[in-house]
Amino acid sequence: MKNQPSRRRFLKLSLAGVIGMTMGGRDLLKPAHAADLPQLAEDDPQAAALKYVHASPHSDKKCSNCALLQGNEGDEWRPCAIFPGKVVAAEGWCSAWAKKP
Q1: Most exposed among 3, 13, 26, 29, judged by the fewest C-beta atoms under 10 Å?
Q2: Tens digit of pLDDT for each residue in 30-58?
Q3: Where is the High potential iron-sulfur proteins family profile domain (predicted)?
Q4: 3-class secondary structure for 32-92?
């Protein structure tokens, strides 16, 4: 009978798991801010493959009006879905550019 699960044991383990996730993994749950991320270099292999540049050669196509750009409007450097863990220039461009809907 000792190996049978009980409601009390289930609740204890569930509560311990919730506490462990919220207290122990606090840094894992903290979102990264754009200021904490490194800037994407134009010579980065992935950037070079997608022809990323800090200054867009197109007047109407910039990272700032791309559907893949994330972060706060108006920031000079913002995260991009194509380059995780790095920020791109709002005035930049790459071949993955997609018009905002």
Answers
A1: 3
A2: 455 666 899 999 999 999 999 999 999 99
A3: 34-101
A4: CCHHHCCECCCCCHHHHHCCCECCCCCCCCCHHHECCECCCCCCCEEEECCCCCCEEECCC
- The total of other beta-carbon atoms located within 10 Å of residue 75's CB is 14
What is the radius of gyration, based on Cα positions, of the chain? 22
CA quadruple 72, 34, 56, 95: dihedral positive or negative?
negative
Please compute the mean of the pLDDT values over residues 14-33 and round it to a whole number. Answer: 55
**Percentage of residues in the chain with pLDDT exceeding 70?**
70
> What are the φ/ψ torsions at residue 99 (nearest 5 degrees)?
-60, 135
CB-based contact 86:94 (threshold 8 Å): no
Q: State the Cα–Cα distance between residues 82 and 101, nearest whole angstrom.
A: 17
pTM confidence score? 0.66
User: CA 21 to CA 65: how far, in whole Å?
Assistant: 37
